[in-house]
Amino acid sequence: MSTSEIAAEAHGHDQGGHGSVGFYWTIAGILGVITAVEVAVFYIDALAPALAPILLTLSAVKFAMVVMFFMHLKFDSKVFTVVFLTGLSIGTFVVVALVLLYQFLPRLKG
Amino acid sequence: MSDTAVAEDHHYTATGLPTWKVGFWTFLGSECLFFASLISTYMVYKGASTTGPFPADVLNIPLTSVSTFVLLMSSLAMVLALDGVRRGDKRLASFWLAMVIVLGGTFLGFQVYEFTHFVHEGLTISGNVFGSSFFVLTGFHGAHVTVGVIWMTVLFIMSLRGKLTPAEALKVEIAGLYWHFVDIVWIVIFTLIYLLQ
Amino acid sequence: MSAHNNGIWSWITTVDHKRIGVMYFVTALVFFVIAGVEALVIRIQLWRPENDFISAETYSQMFTMHGTTMIFLVAMPMAVAFFNFIVPLQIGARDVAFPRLNALSYWTFLFGGIFLNSSFLFGAAPNTSWVAYANLTSSQFSPGHNVDFWLLGLSILGISSIMGGVNFITTIINLRAPGMKLMRMPLFTWMTLVTSFILVTALPVLAVALILLAFDRFFGANFYQPMAGGDPILWQHLFWIFGHPEVYILILPSFGVISDVIPTFSRKPLFGYPIVVYAGIMIGFLGWGVWSHHMFTTGLGPIADAFFVASTMIIAIPTGVKICNWIATMWGGQIRFTTAMLYCIGLLAIFTLGGLSGIMHASAPIDLQQHDTHFVVAHFHYVVAGGVMMGLFAGLYYWFPKVTGRFMDERLGKINFWTYFVGFNLTFFPMHISGIYGMPRRTWTYAAELNIALPNMLSTIGAFIFALSALILVYTIIKSAISGEPAGPNPWNAATLEWSIPSPPPHYNFAEIPTVRSREPLWREEERREIEAVTLKVPDVEPVMPNSSYMPILLAFGVALTWGLVMTGKWWAPVIGLSYVGVCILMWAFEDPFARKGA
Ligand code: HEM
Ligand SMILES: [Cu+2]
Q1: Does the predicted TM-score (pTM) go above 0.80?
Q2: Catalytic (active site) residue C371
Q3: Selection from C260, C197, C182 nearest residue A85 by Cα
Q4: By the CB < 8 Å criterion, does B138 face chain C?
Q5: Which of B7, B185, C434, C498 is 20 to 30 A removed from B123 (C-alpha atoms)?
Q6: Domain at C334-498: CATH code
Q7: Given CB atoms, is B134 within the 8 Å cutoff of chain A?
Q8: Tens digits of residue pLDDT in A24-48
């Protein structure tokens, strides 16, 4: 490992203040609570019509929190964001496009 | 893990970023497409099975909620382990690495239980297309967790032997990126497969 | 020092990007000859109506292996050969980001190629075309091992490509010389970057399509089996979600090559550099939104059809923009008609024609007539055999002096180009006509009543001229490598960094890493002198380069072995291979690439 890497590493660690243990526990706590809410929403009949949007939003929040805080993307170089988001956005596009094609635009029969 | 970069010998990278980390984030971008394709497959086949068992017959929400929680907490253990390595605290690092292994192993245990239980209920990879797409998607996720557990075990041994000095934190950081990635894939799977039946 | 010795082991264990580049090229050239022979067999069979030179089964194997080989074992690896040799030199790096991983990519590719072709020895060559539509590929309709060889071989190659993509993205992001800002990078490096992003994103989709097929065939899953709720069309979706980005994986490297070659031989900077860069990036993204233009005949319905018609037409725009840029670069320049330049101009002409036929079947109603006819065969050979391959050969003639220190023979080169140009057009132009007349693809013979004997005869004659051209090329390469005229560091008077170092380059590339201050550093007198002062000198102490390693070939072998064992259909067999792979990975992880020998 090169000196420059270590330097970059130590540098990244000092700034941003994301390294504090308490912060990590807080994030984990929030993630746990959201998961509990998700499961609760699943069991509450009254919310059934809005189930999909609620759950998709909640899981997107969890997803984003893990990526931003546990994987440090929020505090790290933009380069990592670019290479990761390229894959993530194309992947999301593929899922959405296929679901649209199959579940909402059924093929002609016959 | 020491396959670093020719950058090493001239001590210079264009961005100032560790080469390994750039490569690994790129790889994770690639993995997004892998799981996106598997998830798409599951999604387009929702409701397509002609014979049972169907999702509502077998999926066990309370059980999976617990295993989801376990995996989330393993991510916490992971960041704390990295924090321990950076502080140069060998005992702290080893403890939290062990926790990652234990929690990851527990998650896998849940999955093994779930799979065997489903097979008993008649859900198999060849029975209907729900079985095919469920087992292949969650199976590949499980395989990723397994690789992660092996990786963590190697790091754990290195940590016990005092090989994970703060200068080596990058190794743990990258393993951590992998681990969290596997976790976020599960966040998506839990919602799309289990909660949105 | 390993890098100085030349024995066979030094090549097998090398991690030097230049040697790996040469190995990629030579291997691709061998596969080019093999796939060319397959093409000739196809053309002989189609020489006259109702011919019986080969059986229908053999014909299926020929066109399947021809297509698969040309795309995955010729066009892609030949581009990767240039990524390897040229990109580190263009950005001022001593090697790629992960040298051992790079060697691993090569060996995985080689073993994947051998795996695929070994099917011939078992009389079970793949026979369901390079697109292998479900559910023809199911165990029910393809009981032999043919499809197994195809899907396993291809997935090995996919792994190689993904590793290569990660490596080149990292290299280009992180290993640029001081001052080599993104917007100063040579266009070839730019297009390598875009291509690498497509590689790492598109290949996983193919991997999943293949995994699902493998589960269907080996473990009785139902992904493409309608009886249990599966859908054969899903294969087409996944395949083309990969497949259309794949065609840009093929063409963008060639676009990169000619964007460097045309300015050199026109003595003018590239016209509208940023536009060419942005158009390339745009193509990379838009390429994801057009895949269903391969599936108009599956009845997607009017809304989906309309969307894909529109997106397909839109994507032709950035491509057209680039073509205008190249023409504008030549405009008013002092053009030198070297062989490399001829290939560039050939690409412009031929690729544009291919783009035009593409626009024709971008329209769904027209495509309903043209789909699966020889018209489509004509289209994609104009863009691939005309566009992609001409670009790569332009690169060959252009960079050969850098690689070997010798010029390619220009006289033979001109013969090579003109036979290529004539042979190519004679082979593929008539297919537009036979296609319009309704000659189907992938069908081993045709009826005399179709009235297409003449175009087919012309095609077959053209194919032999084309093959002759390929032979001339191989001969020219060998002859020039041995006895070509010596070339200096910058024989073409080109502008980019790879021409600032000796030809062939020393194993460490740059004695000292230069600092770059502009887009055409060697065309600015002062900057050139500064750079050459550090790049042409002989260093007092040679820079330390990573050691050679056995791990890449051992690990690549493990991958091929594991995949081969899948074919046994026993779940535990690949586990044996996987354990071997696991051991290799651990040994790899703990090998120190910079450990000093004997220390
Ligand atoms: C102007 C840009 C282009 C357009 C509008 C276009 C359009 C199309 C369409 C609509 C098809 C489907 C035809 C059918 O099967 O009925 C097709 C097939 C094909 N295109 Fe293109 N194309 C373009 C450029 C390219 C390029 C740049 C390449 C490769 C470098 C390429 C390679 C192919 C291949 C290989 C196929 C045939 C696949 C197969 O069925 O085996 N095309 N193109
Ligand atoms: Cu296409």
Answers
A1: yes
A2: no
A3: C197
A4: no
A5: B185
A6: 1.20.210.10
A7: no
A8: 999 999 999 999 999 999 999 888 8
